[in-house]
Prior knowledge:
Layout: H1 3-13, E1 44-47, E2 53-58, E3 64-72, H2 85-92, H3 105-123, H4 128-146, H5 153-160, E4 164-170, E5 174-182, H6 186-198, H7 205-220, H8 223-235, H9 249-252, H10 257-267, E6 273-279, H11 283-294, E7 316-322, E8 328-334, H12 343-353, H13 360-366, E9 373-380, E10 385-392, H14 399-414, H15 420-437, H16 441-453, H17 458-462, H18 464-469, H19 473-483, E11 488-494, H20 520-526, E12 545-549, E13 552-558, E14 564-571, H21 581-588, E15 592-593, H22 598-607, E16 611-616, E17 621-628, H23 632-644, E18 646-647, H24 652-667, H25 671-684, H26 696-700, H27 704-712, E19 719-725, H28 729-736, E20 761-766, E21 771-782, H29 788-799, H30 805-813, E22 819-825, E23 833-843, H31 847-859, H32 865-881, H33 889-898, H34 907-916, H35 919-926, E24 935-940, H36 947-953, E25 955-959
Parallel strand pairs: 2-6, 7-11, 13-19, 20-24, 20-25
Antiparallel strand pairs: 1-2, 3-5, 3-6, 4-5, 8-10, 8-11, 9-10, 12-13, 14-17, 14-19, 15-18, 16-17, 21-23, 21-24, 22-23
Helix pairs in contact: 3-4, 5-32, 6-11, 12-19, 13-14, 21-27, 29-32, 30-31, 32-34
Amino acid sequence: MNKKIWASLVFALAGFPLWAASFDVSRLPKTYETPLADDPMGVTVHRLENGLTVYLSPNHQTPRVEAWIAVRGGSKLDPQDLTGMAHYLEHMLFKGTTRLGTLDFDKEKVHLDRIEALYNELFKTTDPKKRNNIYKEIDAENIEAGKFAAPNEIDKLYTTWGFNGVNAFTSKEAIVYVCDFPKNRLEQWSQVEEDRFKNPIFRLFQSEIEAVYEEKNRSMDNAERILRDALISELYKGHPLGLTTLGSMDHLKNPNVSRMKEYFDRYYVPNNMAVILAGDFEPAEALGIIRQRFGSWQPKNFSLPKLPQLPKFSDVKRLTVNYEAEEKVVIAWPAISHNDPDWPALRMLDMVMDNSETGIINLDINQQQKVKAAGSGPDTYNEGGSWQMWAIPKKDQTLEQAEDLLMQSLAKLKSGAFTQEDLTAILTNYEISEKARLESNGARVQMMADSFIEEKSWEESAQWVNRLRAVRKDDILRVAGQYLGQGRVVIYRRKDKPEIPSMTKPGFTKIDIDPTKQSSFFGELAAQKAAAIAPRWVKEGEDFRIEKFPWGKLYAVKNPMNDLFSIEFQFERGWRQERELCQAFNLLEFAGADEMDPQTFKRKLYSLGTSMGFYCGEYYSGVSLSGIEMNFDESLALMKLRLEKPRIEPDTLKKMVEVTLGRRKDEKLDPRSVHSALGSLAMLGPKSPQINRLSNQELEALTTDDLKSRLGRVFDYERKISYVGIREPKALAAALADSKTAFVKTAKRPPYEYLRTPKPKVYFVHRDMVQSQAGFFAADERVNPKKWIDYITYSEYMGGGMSGVIFQEVRESRSLAYAASGSYSKGSIQGDENMLYGYVGCQADKTIEAANLMVELFQNMPASVERFNQAKQAILESYRTDPLTFRSINGAVMSWEELGLGTKDPRPSRMKKAMKFKLSDLEKFAARFQKRPITVYILGNKNRVDWEGLKKIGDFEEKQIPELFRD
């Protein structure tokens, strides 16, 4: 009998449809109809008849579900002459379908087909004049096709239904679509996603490629991205893993719709995909809905392309990238896949080197402040991977010296300078962190998605900790010797001017977006009702407790999920009240306690599975602990001892100041730091934190004794304590008792007040970079809790995701930016001023157009009934379906008190107001900005920006980077 017929007969007899014989099942993970006995996630794994894998992890803490749809593939399967395709395709899957996002698909299709043909022609054309003519034809067809488009209907539906986090990402080996939805919208989510992947249409292709260009531009202003791209290009040379996920500039300039469709048709098939859910659902019901909706997808047999072998290195390969940023060295060894039997040993090796607390790098390099910062980490894929160490040198330290320190730390590991007790402590902390992760639906989904992408069985993934537990010291020494030898890549990022590529703003015509337009399918979906979810409010005495003590207040919440605790001591005291306080807290990072030197103290705390953190800002400072409840008392005693009797080794402060001075020098090279400082100056003027900090001279004058004294006095002040755990508040009284009877009160911080200008204002700072970063703000009234719905409705309307005004007008309609946002920022305590805030990151030659548009949108909010209803519904659904989690209750209660609302949950009354809120109310609120002068602050390349155009936006003032910081 013919083998193919025989195979079909066998599958048919087994109850499978005939198509099941048409695809390879060898790469599909094993199914588990019931959870493993010791799996705290309760995961089941199912297979639909078409090959689709379904992962389910029920978690009933909140009435929401995190949903990921994962496609195996990613950028490593990009065509070699069209890199970036997988990522661009990810963007296009938000553009709708034959039914969603179109007013008349038959008429639209005529123009879409012509656009596809023109891109095919463009792909083969090299003559600049001919290419320009083709672009003009594409533009004309794009305008005609746009007349039938109803953009972002997926996001509009999801916003209306109360979805959060609607997004997607592309990696080397996967494309993943993510969202978080209310449990009563599982059916509607499945309807949209079924249509999205069965009938996608790549409309608005050109406007989206402009957004992808901007994302690429952002990457070229990102020092870490530049370093990483250069490293993987060399490390995985000749292999698709070495290609950038965003694609090369040449390939992005030459997109091809037909080739993208081929990629989709080949890899977006059910037998290469997984639907993954974690949250509040019943598994049988969820599986039934998924089977009903996704079961009709047609599978396809496909073969993965044969990939070349990853390169091997027998010697050291050194390379350099230039960028105006802090210098950095990375050492990378070709290593193994996460599917290799040696992977658990290599992962343990990494944590012996760097576990953030007691690793060899942590104690020998970071604790001793031999460099500014250092660490290690793996980079693994299905085909192979690497293990890397990195360091950022101090001022006047060379990259080669930092590299040598890293190699010394590795030599120490290879000599066996760690114990089995160290491994036990690492495992304790790892297990605690994994237990904490399971509180999050997002973390659960990610673990299941990783299992699918890495082609592992769930049992193997669920037993990962047991595999780590089996690793012994000899295993680590063996893999260190086997994989971390002479053959490696070393890359240096040196401070020097890079070659900045130039992109020209395209001459494409704006697409008019009419928010009243909608497809008939959108109307059908939007009309569907779902069983109402009752809002969940919190009440004092039931959901949280407050106890008063001589030292202040204790806020306590029960942990319903596990035996982990977290406790935070908050002091209303920062560097504005005590100029040297933050430096004292910074010194705490390098402190021991009493008779314990710093290394001994950190090892002791780490052995308990306890993490200690601290923070210090303008007006607040604090210390926190988290860990396992059985070690709470001992951990708390160690924390108090460290604060009251800090042990500081000689030269520690001197080294800390040296590192700080080096960091201050480098922050002037970091676009994010510079733009943030420019924003502070624009908003606060002489009160800017960056120009009010301790000077370099004041830093150098600090003394260890003075800072130790300040740490010792921390508990002299009143405090608020936030506790989440399994103990009752009364049971905490003894542990939190203080021998003192009187405590220093701290005055409430003064309200934030922002600069107001009589005319529009523009601040500009020059930096040689690809993009411009533009911020916008205008001061407004003092925060009024009674107007909360005005505030949040305006923010949702203007900046609420892909369907908000700013995204639609800046990115979707005009392709001016990849990142564009705007909101109304509310004060956090009584008396604080609110402010209007916006941001755009765009190609330099788009700066003036983008800035003018943002100002216009703020000053003349485009009113739309449809957009308003979406924003209003999103807010109502948030109240109904997004309750406070047990870990967020204390912070919420404290914020209510700061606003003068007491401890009663204000959300019920806010929801009632939201239900009555009208578009006319929003218009009345927005009208205040019609003549409000807006300040624009821009970081960009003055040689690429229309200088005269900038001056027309407002009173112009150019600043120099040194003016933004105090040294």
